[in-house]
């Protein structure tokens, strides 16, 4: 896997160097990237991009996947509305789907170039409205 220097990442994505350093340290602590020290050092993924899920990255940076407080480690104990909540069951489905999707999606998929947009006659890009209208007909 390719070694990338922090300056390259910072410049390409316009991330302040101090923030990038903290992010990379967090990712390294969670074994998602490996730090190579020295004058020619940098970072590389700890495993293949197809083996790292988006959920791995989100959990490393933000903690457990939780759409609401009641799905955090404290559960419903930290929520004053828990005894009266009518949203927990519907949100459970959203939580399950979000978790499934983020666990299934890999860095390899996220980093793939997007397919080109369909073109209108005359060379203009189709809009979302054009695509939605075409899908209904």
Question: Can you describe this structure?
Answer:
The radius of gyration is 21 Å and the shape is flat. It is mainly alpha-helical and 137 residues long. The protein contains 6 helices and 2 strands. The model has no long low-confidence stretch (mean pLDDT 84). A hairpin with a 5-residue loop joins strand 1 and strand 2. The termini are far apart. Helices cover 45% and strands 6% of the residues.
Structural topology:
Layout lengths: L5 H8 L3 H13 L3 E4 L5 E4 L8 H9 L25 H17 L2 H5 L16 H9 L1
Question: Percent helix among the residues?
Answer: 40-55%
Distance between the termini: 47 Å
Beta percentage is 5-15%
Oligomer: single chain
Can you summarize this structure?
The chain has 137 residues and is mainly alpha-helical.
């Amino acid at each position: 896997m390719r070694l990338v220097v922090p300056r390259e990442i910072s410049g390409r994505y316009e991330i302040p160097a101090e923030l990038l350093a903290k992010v990379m340290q967090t990712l390294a602590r969670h074994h998602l990237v490996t730090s190579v020290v020295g004058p020619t050092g940098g970072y590389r993924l700890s495993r293949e991009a197809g083996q790292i899920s988006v959920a791995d990255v989100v959990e490393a940076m933000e903690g457990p996947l939780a759409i609401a407080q009641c799905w955090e480690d404290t559960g419903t104990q930290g929520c004053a509305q828990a005894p009266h909540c009518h949203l927990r069951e519907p949100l459970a489905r959203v939580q399950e789907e979000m978790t499934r999707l983020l666990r299934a999606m890999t860095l390899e998929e996220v980093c793939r170039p997007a397919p080109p947009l369909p073109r209108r006659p005359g060379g203009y890009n189709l809009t979302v409205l054009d695509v939605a209208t075409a899908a209904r007909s």
